[in-house]
Design goal:
single chain; 246 residues; alpha/beta; eight-stranded parallel beta barrel
C-alpha cells in the first residue's frame, strides 16, 4: 500500500491568519493519526507564513512515542537554520526542495547540477544522524541520475504537471502518467525510493496511485480544503481507502 503523509501546513496558514493557537497544528496531526494516517509532513518556510519552528518541535514531541508507526517528514530548502533544526529533531525523512524567492508554493524540482557541493554535504549530514533524504525533482532522467549521484535515499516527483494534464482529460493524463512511470522505473533501477506530491487529490490519484514502485504521497492543500466541508476524519479515511484499493 502507498503511504499517505498528510501535509498540515494549511492548518498553520489558517491559524496565522488570525493569530493565537487555533486551529492547532498538533491537534490536526493527532486527528490524522487517529484515523490511520501513517505520516505527517510540514514545510517550514523562512518567512514562517505557515509552519513555524515551534510547530516542528511540538510535532516532534507528539510523534516521538509513535515513531515506529507514524513517519515525520520535514520539507524545505537547505538553509542553515532549517538544516540545524532537522538534525536536532531527527525526523524519519527530510525532503530537500528548491525555493524561489517570493513563490507561493513550489514551482519545480531541483535542476540537475544545482548546488552540488552544498547538497552533498547536507545529505551526508542528515544521513549521519539517521534521517532519510529525499530530493524534490521533476520526472526527468537527468534529475533522477543526479539525485542518485548525490547519494539521496529517495526522490519526490513534482506532480503539478500531471495534475494539470488530468484536468485536460484522460488522454492527456495517461500521456503524463507514462512520463512519470518511466521516471519511477529509472529511479527504482538506480536504487532510489519514490515519493510524489503537489496537487494530488482524490480524483487524479485514481490513476497516479498505480505508479510503479511508489512508496509515499504527500498531500496537503486538496486534503485540507475538502476537510473544510466534510471534516478531517472523513477525508483521511477517503484517501486511505483509495490508496489501499486494488
Amino acid at each position: 500500500m502507498v503511504r499517505l503523509s498528510v501535509n498540515v501546513n494549511k492548518i498553520a496558514t489558517l491559524r496565522n491568519a488570525r493569530g493565537g493557537a487555533i486551529p492547532s497544528v498538533t491537534e490536526a496531526a493527532r486527528v490524522c493519526i487517529e484515523e490511520g494516517a501513517p505520516g505527517i509532513t510540514v514545510h517550514p518556510r523562512e518567512d514562517q507564513r505557515h509552519i513555524r519552528p515551534g510547530d516542528v518541535d511540538a510535532l516532534a514531541e507528539l510523534l516521538g512515542p509513535l515513531r515506529d508507526r507514524v513517519e515525520f517528514n520535514i520539507e524545505g530548502d537547505p538553509r542553515p537554520d532549517l538544516m540545524d533544526h532537522v538534525r536536532r529533531v531527527r525526523p524519519h525523512q527530510c525532503t530537500l526542495v528548491p525555493v524561489v524567492p517570493g513563490e507561493i508554493t513550489s514551482q519545480a524540482g531541483w535542476i540537475a547540477g544545482a548546488s552540488r557541493r552544498e547538497l552533498v554535504a547536507e545529505i551526508r549530514g542528515l544521513q549521519a544522524v539517521g534521517v532519510r533524504v529525499s530530493l524534490f525533482v521533476d520526472p526527468e532522467p537527468d534529475a533522477i541520475h543526479w539525485a542518485a549521484e548525490l547519494g539521496a535515499n529517495r526522490i519526490e516527483l513534482y506532480t503539478e504537471p500531471y495534475a494539470r494534464a488530468w484536468e485536460r482529460g484522460r488522454e492527456h493524463a495517461e500521456a503524463s502518467f507514462r512520463r512519470y512511470a518511466d521516471a519511477a522505473e529509472l529511479a527504482h533501477k538506480l536504487g532510489l525510493g519514490i515519493n510524489a506530491g503537489h496537487d494530488l487529490d482524490l480524483d487524479n490519484l485514481q490513476l497516479f496511485r498505480e505508479l510503479p514502485h511508489l512508496d509515499e504521497v504527500s498531500i496537503g492543500h486538496a486534503l485540507i480544503s475538502r476537510a473544510v466541508f466534510v471534516g478531517l476524519p472523513r477525508v483521511i479515511g477517503e484517501y486511505l481507502e483509495l490508496l489501499r484499493r486494488e
